[in-house]
TrEMBL record:
Keywords: Membrane, Transmembrane, Transmembrane helix
Protein's name according to its UniProt entry: Uncharacterized protein (TIGR02611 family)
Spans through the membrane: 34-55, 61-85, 106-125
Region annotation (Disordered) ranges: 1-20
Domain of life: Bacteria
Annotated organism of origin: Kitasatospora atroaurantiaca
Length: 137
């Protein structure tokens, strides 16, 4: 279990301490701090739920989900740890993507995929013209 550190000052690694980022006057009163945590949780939950709804729809679903996680991370250690892990994994993936061999492979796969799509589109146009599939007889 993570140790709660209510000191939001950056440590030697550049990370802020784990724990609540609530103002001091809120952290000083347990009942007020609990109500603050409930409010932060509910706002974060609403934002994450909106992000989940946006996933199958055209929109920034993952961005909204991570925004909700960021809201939770202002108050909850578990969310702070999840965001640190996510940042580390995204950074590692970005470094791997910049590897020349990986970039070359991705470019080749993209070109082959586009050629296949263009070939299928050309075949369809040569066979049926501009007729829509549901209007074929």
């Amino acid at each position: 279990m993570a140790v709660r550190n209510d000191n939001p000052d950056p440590d030697e690694t550049g990370h802020k301490g784990l724990g609540s980022r609530a103002p001091h006057f809120i952290r000083r009163h347990p009942a007020l701090h609990l109500s603050w945590q409930v409010a932060v949780f509910l706002v974060g939950l609403a934002v994450v739920a909106l992000g989940v709804v946006l996933l199958p729809l055209p929109g920034p679903g993952w961005v909204v989900i991570f925004l909700g996680m960021g809201i939770w991370a202002t108050e909850f250690v578990w969310a702070q740890l999840v965001l640190r892990w996510t940042r580390r994994k995204v950074s590692e993936a970005a470094q791997r993507a910049m590897d020349p061999r990986v970039r070359r492979r991705n470019i080749i796969l993209t070109v082959v995929g586009l050629l296949v799509i263009a070939g299928l589109g050309g075949w369809y146009l040569s066979r049926y013209g501009l007729t829509l599939p549901w209007q074929l007889s």
